[in-house]
Amino acid sequence: MSSHLEFDEIHVSLSESVRGWAKTYWAPGAALRDENAQFDEALYHRLDTDLGVMNITLPEELDGSGLDVAATVLVIEALSEFDPGMAMSYLSQELLFSHQLYWTWQTMKREIPAAHAQILKNKWISGMAMTEPNAGTDVLGMTTRAERCEGGFKLNGVKQWITNGPNGRVFLVYARTGEGRRDISLFVVMGDTPGLVRTECEQKMGMRSSPTGILTFQDCFVPESALVGNLHEGLRPMIRNLAAERLGLAAQSCGIAKTCFETMKSYAGQRMAFGRPIAEFGQIQRLVAESYALYRAMHAMLYDGVWELIEENGKASETADAVKLFCSTGAETIGRNAIQVLGANGYSKAYPVERLYRDAVLLSIGGGTNEALQKNITRQLINS
Questions:
Q1: Where do the domains of the chain lie, and which CATH numbers do they carry?
Q2: What is the mean pLDDT of residues 53-75?
């Protein structure tokens, strides 16, 4: 296994372009979007018109760029330095919908149906619906069902905490299709399908510029063509894509950590106390130095995990779990350190660290709680 990801010129150029663009267009309104819990759809679509980073892992015939998952992770990291909430919506569309839909057909060595291909070409705001009110991390405990009927299936159940739920045009939906615990299937469901009711979730602590909603299915009919892959075989692509999602969330952690570190470093060098910069005091030096060391470790671990995912063709679940566990807790630690270095200014909205710290908290919950990851990692290591 390679010890690190070898970035080529395309990766480097992509990262620099996205970061420069985000600093100019993404960053200025981030605080206001957070305050108002506002998703700026016009700005979001500029990710495609200005940067061309939608469908980034899809082939050219699907209006994609033909790049690897590393490219998606680089984009997510760069965007998350400035507005992790809006970046979360991008993660949902790119990794949890587009990449997942295309990859599922590819791994089955089956041509993607024309209807699904057209949906991908449309680059609609989209998402993935797996979590339920009583089945979050326990995905096999889901109760949403898809029952066969004439011409297709009828879906009944509730999905909660769905990124892009209120504003997405199309979703990948996991539903139980048999009596076995693993009899789960994957469906493409349009957001305006009769029988699908969408409502917004409660106001969130962080990631407030990313819409989160509840999807309620009430005899929601979808045609046979909505099925992705084979009946009862949705679990394998789910597990593989959970690894990609967790690396995306770790990338968000690294983006948050970088901005928090850069902010505390700059502030420590400029803020005067007792006639000298606070960077000269040992207590501050510990917070700055340990945050820098932690950020560098997070970044190295993230891209080591990304490279393993690519080399192993998606079979890197324990590594992805470990990366997400380490990076999400690291982002919270660095965010908290930044607030402490800035003191009252860090606790206020005058600097971005207050907002970013709130955003970071979600990353230890979403995509599988860190407690669940600890269980998964231990079980996988013991049984390997």
A1: 9-122 (1.10.540.10), 126-228 (2.40.110.10), 235-383 (1.20.140.10)
A2: 96
